[in-house]
Design goal:
By secondary structure, this protein is α/β, with parallel strands linked by helices. It has helices spanning 38-55, 60-76, 78-89, 93-113, 150-163, 178-188, 211-220, 233-245, 268-280, 300-312, 332-347, 383-386, 402-409, 425-434; strands spanning 4-6, 9-11, 18-22, 29-34, 120-123, 129-137, 140-144, 167-171, 191-192, 197-198, 204-206, 226-230, 249-253, 258-262, 290-296, 351-354, 373-376, 393-399, 419-421, 441-442, 461-462, 475-483. It has two domains: 4-254 and 461-483, Aldehyde Dehydrogenase, Chain A, domain 1 (3-Layer(aba) Sandwich); 258-449, Aldehyde Dehydrogenase, Chain A, domain 2, CATH 3.40.309. It has 14 helices and 22 strands. The strands form six sheets. Strands 16-17-18-15-14-19-20 form a seven-stranded mixed β-sheet, sandwiched between helices. Strands 11-8-7-12-13-21 form a six-stranded mixed β-sheet, with helices on both faces. A hairpin with a 5-residue loop joins strand 5 (120-123) and strand 6 (129-137). Helix 1 (38-55) crosses helix 7, helix 2 packs antiparallel against helix 4 and helix 3 (78-89) crosses helix 4 (93-113). The radius of gyration is 23 Å and the shape is globular. The chain starts with a strand and ends with a strand.
């Protein structure tokens, strides 16, 4: 049985209760983990506070060194971690290895930034007086991580938190704690100062269990000074409300319904390939995945036919098996949600080009499989147009000009990512200016680069992760006045 990580030790829950983690591809039990309680969170906060006293006093160079060593330690167990991730989440081994690579790259990025935090000198009007702006770590941080990319989204919180000198408690999704526990165990073992010092015990902690207990305690406990949440917009609203009572610093990276706009002058062959990856990677379970495809009427038919042909060859199966190109949905309720969204679109006049049903037969009947799906003639009042589609179904809309495409794209309550495919700088610049989204990709796949800020507008969230900008949310800014007397 797996254990939680608190104060540098692997421990059971105070209650001694556990729950099972199951493989969405087979229904088999992968392992059991502790069912954490509010008292376990208190233990983790105690450990994190004690670690913070030492870690906050470490040099920026030492913080960077520790993060670099953590990367090497994670890579040492990457094969084991990838298999655990595939078994608990459902994604293919290829996708799991890419996620580990993204995690390590992100930690390396913040290792380099640790020594780049700057303040400033400020001349003041009073004679013999000057000011300074200094930036200091916040304290104990809480990271609440979803199940779709549990490692990379854990890393976007742990990396900047540690680089800034904070300690952190991670609450993984109840269904995907296993790979996270191994990664965080390795990170806690990190050394610095040429291997002479170890990360203070409790610098990183993991408490497993239900969000209604573990998550709520992180949100409501006043000793947790900062919350980083990634998840659904519905839960994000609750996070903001509860954390707001404690005046915590909060960032929310929430849902999206990202538009992909393909103009008449686009490199259509490239756009087709990227639409496939952008929608069906990780079985379509991506906040920044392509959720709505807008095609100029002059290239729509060839685009749809070519994309449908690619999808007919996509092998759906257990992510642990060679040849599988798309694994199952993570939970049965998600598959039912996708089915209901597709049926709603069909009832309103949409046409299913390919897919639109479960993948069945043999071992597929044991998991939560659904065929890659394309929908055309989709009305704007259909659920797939209005809601986030968190699975392998893609609604397609034809348009006559860019203004029409942008107007429809912006009609969504979401505003996370977006893309335009064109050879025209005029088209590209208009999309960059007018699309209501936190990120715009031009002739590029929707991807969260560690080097760039990532986050949404409207119902897609508040604040930014990734990039140097993420450090701002893990540092307090203090104004100082110094007078010569």
């Amino acid at each position: 049985m797996a254990q939680m990580l608190i104060g540098g030790e692997l421990v059971d829950s105070i209650s001694n209760e556990t729950y099972e983690v199951r493989n969405p591809a087979t229904g088999d039990v992968v392992d059991s983990v502790p069912k954490g309680t509010a008292a376990d969170v208190e233990r983790a906060i105690d450990a994190a506070e004690n670690a913070f006293k030492e870690w906050a006093d470490s040099s920026p160079e030492d913080r960077g060194s520790a993060l670099l060593n953590a990367c090497e330690l994670v890579k040492e167990r990457s094969g084991e971690i990838a298999q655990l991730l595939t078994q608990e989440q459902g994604k293919t081994l290829f996708e799991a290895n890419l996620e580990i690579h993204h995690l390590v790259h992100g930690l390396e990025f913040y290792a380099g930034l640790a020594s780049k935090v700057r303040g400033s000198h400020v001349p003041l009007p009073a004679k013999g007086t000057y000011g300074m702006v200094i930036r200091q770590p916040i304290g104990v941080c809480g990271g609440i991580v979803p199940w779709n990319f549990p490692l990379t989204l854990m890393g976007t919180k742990v990396g900047p938190a540690l680089a800034a000198g904070n300690s952190i408690i991670i609450k993984p999704a109840s269904t995907t704690p296993l790979a996270t526990l191994v990664c965080m165990e390795q990170i806690q073992k990190a050394t610095y100062a040429d291997g002479k010092k170890s990360l203070p015990k409790g610098t990183v902690n993991v408490v497993t269990g239900p969000g209604s207990v573990v998550g709520e305690e992180l949100l409501s406990n006043p000793r947790v000074r900062r919350i980083a949440f990634t998840g659904s917009t519905e839960v994000g609203r609750h996070v903001m409300e509860v954390a707001g009572r404690q005046i915590k610093r909060v960032t929310l990276e929430l849902g999206g319904s990202d538009p992909m706009i393909v103009m008449e002058d686009a490199n259509v062959d490239l756009a087709i390939k990227m639409a496939d990856v952008g929608r069906y990677f990780n079985c379509g379970q991506m906040c920044l995945g392509v959720k709505r495809l807008f095609l100029h009427e002059s290239i729509a038919d060839q685009f749809i036919d070519a994309l449908a042909e690619i999808l007919t060859k996509k092998t759906v199966g257990n992510g642990m098996e060679k040849g599988s190109r798309m694994g199952p949905l993570h939970m049965d309720y998600q598959r039912r949600e996708i089915e209901e969204q597709v049926e709603d679109a069909k009832s309103r006049g949409a046409r299913v080009v390919i897919g639109g049903e479960r993948a069945t037969g043999g071992d597929l009947d044991r998991g939560f499989y659904y065929l890659p799906t394309l929908l055309t003639d989709v009305p704007l009042d259909a659920r797939v147009s209005r809601e986030e589609v968190f699975g392998p179904a893609l609604p397609i809309y034809r348009f006559k000009d860019l203004d029409e495409a942008i107007e429809i794209a912006n009609s969504s309550e979401y505003g996370l990512g977006s893309s335009i495919w064109t050879r025209s700088l005029l088209y590209a610049n208009k999309a960059i200016d007018k699309l209501q989204a936190g990120n715009v990709w031009v002739n590029s796949l929707h991807y969260g680069y560690d080097e760039l800020p990532f986050g949404g507008v409207k119902a897609s969230g508040i604040g930014r992760e990734h990039g140097p900008e993420a450090l701002d949310y893990y540092l307090e800014t203090k104004g100082v006045v110094i007078a010569n007397v």
